[in-house]
Each structure stands twice: as structure tokens, then as C-alpha cells.
Design goal:
Strand content: 5-15%
Strand order of the largest sheet: 1-2
Number of helices: 6
Largest sheet: 2 strands, antiparallel
Helix content: 55-70%
Structural class: mainly alpha
Distance between the termini: 39 Å
């Protein structure tokens, strides 16, 4: 469903039978944002520039088009393809480097790997 919020269009998702946008879901605690994803150089740049702005800027080149979901997947540790990564460096005006983009993915994967034993221990404890 497409709605407007402060003059900007965005989609809503259904959480627990009620329709709410991602901001509302974050605010209510129904959708958890992993802060580590936003603390890297790349994550901070994405937060500052904005996911919709990145999607719009990359859409100018048909070979670089991405969705919001793709950008969030980059934040989850799945690195962008090299052509898109180079476009992000250019888009950032030099604030980002290829190393910063790919280091973000490595940091997120390391954090996930180190958290995995704790998650497994919690699951075993619940049984």
C-alpha cells in the first residue's frame, strides 16, 4: 500500500493485523533496527544520504537501478556489485571509498558470526 507521510510517498506494511509504516513500526518496537549496521562509515553515509535518495540517484543509469530492499541488503552485509559500489563512491562526493563499502559488509558478517554462538545458546536454554 502506498501512502504519504510529510509529503513523501512510502509503502506501508502490515504488522500484527494493523497497517503501519516502517517508522511507526520502529517507534513502537515491533521492528528492530540493528544499530551496528548504521555505525560503520558506509552505514552513516546511507543514513545521512537516505535510502530513497540513493535509489533515485542510481535510477538515472538503467544498469545501476536498485530497489530500497537492495540498499537495505547492503546494510545487512551483502555487498553491492562493483559497478554500483563505484557509483556510490562517486555519489558520495569522495566521502566513501570502495574499501569503506566492502569493509561494512565484512564487519556486519563478523558481528553476525560472533553473535551466532550466543543465539544458539539462548535457543538451547529455551528448550
Amino acid at each position: 500500500m502506498l501512502t504519504t507521510h510529510r509529503g513523501r510517498a512510502h509503502s506501508t506494511r502490515c504488522f500484527g493485523g494493523t497497517s503501519m509504516d516502517q517508522r511507526d513500526a520502529l517507534a513502537s518496537g515491533r521492528f528492530k533496527r540493528d544499530p551496528a549496521r548504521w555505525e560503520t562509515e558506509f552505514g552513516r553515509w546511507v543514513a545521512d544520504f537516505g535510502v530513497p535518495s540513493i535509489v533515485k540517484a542510481l535510477a538515472r543509469d538503467p544498469d545501476l537501478r536498485v530497489t530500497n530492499q537492495a540498499v537495505y541488503e547492503w546494510l545487512q552485509g551483502h555487498p553491492p556489485r562493483p559497478a554500483r559500489a563505484m557509483a556510490l563512491v562517486e555519489l558520495s562526493g569522495g566521502r566513501l571509498t570502495l574499501e569503506a563499502i566492502y569493509e561494512h559488509g565484512r564487519e556486519i558478517r563478523r558481528a553476525q558470526d560472533s553473535a551466532a554462538p550466543e543465539d544458539n545458546a539462548r535457543k538451547e536454554h529455551r528448550r
